[in-house]
Amino acid sequence: MKCYLQNLCLFAFLACGMTATVSATEIDFENDIFPILDDNCLFCHGEDEQESGLRLDRRGFMLRGGDSGLAAIVPGHPEKSYLVDAISHVDEDMAMPPDEDKIADEDIELITRWIKEGAIWPGQMDDVAEEEIDHWAFLPRQTEFDHHTIDGFVHAKLSEAGLSFSRPADPRSLIRRVSIILTGLAPTPERTFDFIAAFNEDADSAYEQLVDELLASPHFGERWAQHWLDVIRWAETNGSESNLYRKNAWMYRDYVVRSFNEDKPYDEFIREQIAGDITGHGDATGFLVAGPHVPAATVGQEPTAIRQARADRMDEVLQTVGASMMGVTIGCARCHNHKFDPISINDYYSMTAAFQDVEFGSRFPELGADHPRTLRAAQLRDELKTLREQMRSKGWAWVEDWTGYEEVHFPTKTIDELRIHFDGRWVMLDELEIFESTGEQRNVLAEDMGTVITDNPTTHVPNQPPKNLNDGVFGTKGWRGVSKKGNKETPWLEFAFAAPFDIGMIRLSSNREDFLETDYLEGMNQSKYGDFKLEIRDADGDWKPFASTSAMKKRSSENEERQALQSQIQETIAALLIEGPQPAFLGQFVPPVETYVLARGSPESPRDQVFAAAPKRLNGNLDVEPNAPGPQRRKAFAEWLVASDNPLTARVMTNRMWHHIFGSGIVPTPSDFGRAGAPPTHPELLDWLTSQFIDSGWSMKSIIRQIVLSRAFRQSSTPDQDGLAKDGSAQLLWRFPPRRVEAEVIRDSVLQASGRLDSTIGGPSYRIHNVKKRYAQWEVIDNHSDETWRRMLYQERMRRVDDRIFTAFDFPDCGQIRAKRPVSTTPLQALNLMNSDFVVTQAQLLADRAESESGPSIEDQINRCFELLLCRRPSQTELTASVEFAQTQSIELLCRTLINTNEFAFLP
Amino acid sequence: MGAIALSQLLAKDNLLASGLESGPIRPKIDDKNPYAPRPPHFDMPAKQVLVIYCPGAVSHVDTFDYKPDLYKLDGQKPPGIPQVTFEGPTGNIAKPFWDFKPRGESGKMVSDLLPNLAGMVDDFCFMHSLTTQTSAHPQGENFMNTGFTMEGFPSFGAWVTYALGCETDELPAFVAINDPRGLARSGKNNFGSGFLPAAFQGTDFTASNPPANLGRPNAYTPAADQASVSLLQRLNAKHLKQFPGDADLAARIASYELAGRMQTSVPEVMDIANEPAHIHQAYGTGSGTELKKAYANNCILARRLLEKGVRVVQLFNGSDPAGGNGITNWDSHSDIKETHAMQAEIMDQPTAALIADLKQRGMLEHTLVVWCTEFGRMPFLQANGTGRDHNPDAFTCFLAGAGVKKGYSYGESDEFGFKAAVNETSVYDFNATLLHLMGLDHERLTYYHNGLERRLTNVHGHVVKDILA
């Protein structure tokens, strides 16, 4: 801000000076201005050289500005013209001319006046410097094609290189390959043998049937969700300071799994993730806050640091959108115009205007009436209602634990006064609500209900008065009552209602903040008010208790029926807290503030105000009002993404599908379609397949199906010397390129082979970490016992935490976009897969399974182990070696060995 | 195809584009051994690097950056002190909590807080005008160790390992020795591989905790374990015959051989009990607090790793706040006199002994030593307090060993140690200089990730030539 203000002062000064000293003669560009530019600027900013991308030899270039993205001149507005800043040395780092003295004050004044008077440049008043877009990815797709099948395009390229397809893969390799690619799980031996038999009868029909079965499997969504979550570096912790757990963030993971399983059209998938809050898909917006963030509370108290942190959070949002859906890196434009791609600094900040209402945090997701979570919640609420009615009908009162708060239910009292009298001497509440048990079941403490609250004057804490009880502010700054030494009284709260109400429930908490934002920390969600009594006045006007929480607990423990009912209530609540629409880390929405271009990315240097838009040169006008509400802006942005003339969106996703199937995309840089990315190996194929994608109604399953049915996919992966020599990485697809499978595939396939994989879809993640203190690091405490035997997709994704086994297999740290995992081979992988408790445990379970399924014969057991892990029987030499091995060692050790083989770890 | 198009051929690291005057120099990674030694960009004396990292921010004005004006202004609040810094309102100037004395032949003024390190100033090259971009620890640690305040970038050690591989094929190329109390604030970021292949991340172990999964499981006898390894070799060899010429498969076979060697050599290198008594005494493994003893053992481990040819050793002296007994790192917002003293007791003797040991063995000839922290502390106290707040605008680190001037001080902070005043040196410059000392051009050591040729120094950084020997 400092520079900006200085700048304004300077102009105030210049403007005054001008009227006083400079004669009012008209400025003549050729005689007055051009010589100044020619002497001082054009050597570096002219036709031959354009330092920082800036040219000052044409008016159009001046209007556009250089790489900084700031207009060199804004006619009529010298105060907005970067040229004037530069020559007036407003900012030392951008003082021009460089390494020389400032140009003469009169010259600066002349240029300033020239701009002020409209920057008249005879003959160039219509000059514009719009750059042609000539990079393929930003141009419309081709519509005429030489081929009409994937194999047609691939074969053509192979022929050009003097190569051809390999022979078809054998059925065992094929089923293993396609099962892992589509579901992330190796096939079972039974399915493999069935397939081989059917394949030998009628290869095409057997294979098509298999593919359709795999596409319909609920594990398909798990596998493809994993890819999507990698790209957007989704995780269940913040990263940064204390790396806190993000409560219920997994709801978004489940949304992604469900979307892939339902084959949700990709355009709809985009709309929901960007603006699902307005269409009943609130759980989809976890997308927006998938990246890491620095919570506002941990950046310190300096205002500059707070502004910087907000700008950083906004950048994380844009990185997510840019890398996943647009397939371009837009981060560069945060500080200057993108060097390679048609994204200016103005575009960057216009995009931040489109997402200006997004903040990192939790909220109750907006879920449509047909959302599975809504349906389940309704069911559970009905059950709860019935249970509560049973309690009430007996005249019983009870306490419910909702984790972040408690509810005390009691038979209806029609009263106009109530006292809550605490047993303890030191109590703290952040929020308290009192509900009617009839009619609308209103909170009678709501502001417009006219209730007067007072507390015990002898325990009153002046800076934490009762009015804090209903202000919606969570945390430790609510109401407090403190009974000092010698005081015989304990704290109480009195409520005088505006009229008699039917009261039946009180909800209260000491700190609801963590309930909303995080949990899974030591000392979380503790109540700091203890037991209390509910009192009403008797005929004499004295307060008499009619219910007491300690008595409720006591009686409940004495009466079996009461206790049973209450446990049922508590179980239903526990289910609601997981399956119902609970607060979840899916982002918060805040009123959008005005958005400015931040010169060189600094929140301290705001320049022009900008309004929600996508990149201008990609037809980015969103057609929304400047002050449109946030959701409208995001919705419009989503519509721009999925518009039929957007050259990127569909191509990027088509390429991503190809990438996950073949291990490398048609464009080998799946999140960078810009100039710095790699060009497509098969441009026509990409466009043709993209058209197929759009024509299918954006059906991802239909494109994936088409790809895996191709000959290119179904060919053998066996190398041949000619192919290796001409195209070592098989980019042209003369063979199916084999590759090491991902961490998840290894882990899940081991569990499946041992028969211990819990294949439940969705829900809270399993935990391998300790419950930590707020300021501490996560520690892996159990990465192998039966609690963890689910698919690795459900392992809590903790940013930058090493799980001590599979992180070594290039499992991402979720700090940066990961459109493509590296595939490295390291001795640590070997150690983890040979020696970890996970492998040792699973090897034993595998041996047990082999024995129980195949009886006492060692040969049979060995055969079974090979089947379970490799989907085949051992060869004769393998069998001989294995028998010898098992006789001196053990079947268990054989299983450990097989888990470590290349055959197990590679996609055939 | 211009330079940009060339850089597209990126993704494959083995498509090396070297031999050019500028642009990325991609290390040729041997598929069979990603840790095989690789040549630097240019010749420099340093072949190995030891980074001693002090999380929490060491107070420069109480250690190495002598500011006599602080004695004059003690208890005053001269103009120019901001109302609010990281933790809140500011208090008055406080003179150093330890006396300064001239040390060594150079007469460098160093405080009594670190008497052992003070005795070695003639070997050190101080940098007094460092500045960083943040006042928050995790971002500061990220910035110092990965070149970015944000999450997810490769650490310095990972970059060096990616570029240079390792001289030994029996030990990990890059070892992170965490503080006995646990991980530092930014956790694994400090030694992680970010978006580089996992092969280049630091392997973390200490003198008392071996790397995860190094040892043979108790369930198997040594003979059984060996039989399993042999069978695996046979099965893999047979499988490889079906895929003649497939480098990835051969690489994975080789990685198991490497792992086998590590299983022998890591326990050997960790066996510090066999070090002679005078070494234990010099490092102080038998005296002082338990934390100090444990850190001293880690220091001996660091030397042994370097001796064996490990490329990068990163040694931590401090952890995340929840890890310890009373104090956990150098963060001293209250009672700095006590908390810095407790931390110094752990750090001083073992660290000094380690550097002296390296020197005595001639290892400083080819080893760069870097002592650093994420920022400094304020010359004034926090309001009504007894501690100093974070200072991102001036702090001190020192280098020693291969390629670095001895008994030298570069840059100055202002008269209070409040802001860098002469030769301001950013963390980018610092990291550019470290890479230069390792024979690496920070502008050409790049890795293509998501649309950009990423560098440790982003698009910034100038080598501080003045400190080069």
TrEMBL record, chain A:
It comes from the Bacteria. Keywords: Heme, Iron, Metal-binding, Signal. Residues 1-24 form the signal peptide. Pfam families: PSCyt1, PSCyt2, PSD1. Residues 455-474 are annotated as: Disordered. Residues 25-119 form the Cytochrome c domain. Transmembrane segments: none annotated. PANTHER family: CYCLOINULO-OLIGOSACCHARIDE FRUCTANOTRANSFERASE-RELATED, F-BOX DOMAIN-CONTAINING PROTEIN. This is PSD1 and planctomycete cytochrome C domain-containing protein. The lineage of its organism: Bacteria, Pseudomonadati, Planctomycetota, Planctomycetia, Pirellulales.
